[in-house]
Amino acid sequence: MLVESGQVAVVTGAARGIGRAIATELASRGVSVVIVDLRAEPLGAVAEELAAAGDGAVVPATVDVADAEAMTALAQRVQERFGRIDLVINNAGIAPNDGKPMWEADLAQWRRVVDVNLFGMLHGIRAFVPHLVAAGRGHVVNIASLAGLSGTPLSASYGTSKHAAVALSEMLLAELELMGLPIGVTVVCPGFVRTPMVEENRDMTRGPEWADRLGADATALLESIEETMKDMLEPDEAARRVLAAVEAGALHTLPTGDVADGARTRTRRVLDAIEASGSD
Ligand SMILES: NC(=O)c1ccc[n+]([C@@H]2O[C@H](COP(=O)([O-])OP(=O)(O)OC[C@H]3O[C@@H](n4cnc5c(N)ncnc54)[C@H](O)[C@@H]3O)[C@@H](O)[C@H]2O)c1
User: Where does the signal sequence lie (predicted)?
Assistant: First the structure.
């Protein structure tokens, strides 16, 4: 689908980071944007900035994507206000990263990660896709992660939720295709993008929680993460690559490439296991 002036997009997690950059890029192309976030104050400031950047309308909405009913009500409001919805960007996500193995990690935190990163995405799909189906057009973008294609030790809640986000996206497209519905799906799997989330995570991995429990192997892991972070993508470039993937109709897109070879390694292991099983 071409991204064009006059369309209407919804972007979750738009008060900062990748969501803000995608909303900014859309506004600059004349798309009306509904920006959604938990944080009302920065969201208001972003709304003002975007309104100045383009011709389209900008509507801020303070909503928790983990709240299914609030998301459904939001979709109704957007449909009533604009009479169309073209692009739904499920971007909101969290990455609390306390450096604990899964048998010690806080269960309430695990549930919140799954509630936001997986159910938040599902709520976006359930709230907005019926409007796209009714119109017979549109595109859904789900922001997963390279952590959704490879292992992420010591942040398993995040990696698990992102693997689920990739699977959810693939099955969404399969269901739409099975029903002959011309709606596109793109799942985005970035490595590091320079956002507040990454900076906060970097602070956490340098903190006492991590230092106390890590052996020499994990120190090497942290060093390799630091190395990968040196070439972080800027959010505005990530945003342009996401919209290019939408326009190309790509299901999977890796805007930073497979930076630490994790997706390749994992995929090779699965391929090796298939070969070892003797099936053709
Ligand atoms: N930055 C990276 O390197 C990177 C890499 C891979 C994937 N991602 C994914 O990209 C997405 C955006 O990440 P980012 O780095 O811009 O993060 P960020 O923390 O900088 O911004 C995320 C925004 O989402 C909002 N948010 C969080 N929970 C929410 C909720 N329940 N409801 C509504 N809004 C909520 C936050 O308030 C924040 O404004 C996330 O899904 C993240 O997992 C980021």
Answer: none
Question: Which residues lie below 8 Å from residue 162, measured CB to CB, with a gap of 6+?
Answer: 117, 144, 145, 147, 148, 152, 189
Domain containing 52 equals: 8-276
Residues 104-116: what's their mean pLDDT? 97
Q: How many domains does the chain have?
A: 1
Task: Give Cα separations from 261 to 12, 109, 133, 191, 193 (angstroms).
Answer: 29, 28, 37, 11, 17
Distance from residue 63's CA to the centre of ligand 1 (Å): 14
Active site members: 158
SS3 state at 187:
strand
The angle formed by the CA atoms of residues 78, 254 and 280, to the nearest 5 degrees, is 115
Distance (Å, whole) CA 21 – CA 14: 8
Q: Is 160 helix (H, G, I), strand (E, B) or coil?
A: helix
Distance 262 CA to ligand 1 centre (A): 21
Question: Within a domain: residue 90?
Answer: yes
Count other C-beta atoms under 10 Å from residue 153's C-beta: 12
Looking at residue 248, which CATH number applies to its domain?
3.40.50.720
Domain assignment of residue 1, yes or no: no
Atom of ligand 1 nearest to the CA of 18: 16
* pLDDT tens readout for residues 121-134: 999 999 999 999 99
Alpha-carbon span 19 to 86, nearest angstrom: 17
The answer to whether position 181 is within a domain reads yes
Query: How confident is the model over 188-221, as pLDDT tens digits?
Result: 999 999 999 998 887 777 776 666 666 666 677 7
Amino acid (1-letter code) at residue 261? D
List, for residues 26-43, the tens digit of each pLDDT value: 999 999 999 999 999 999
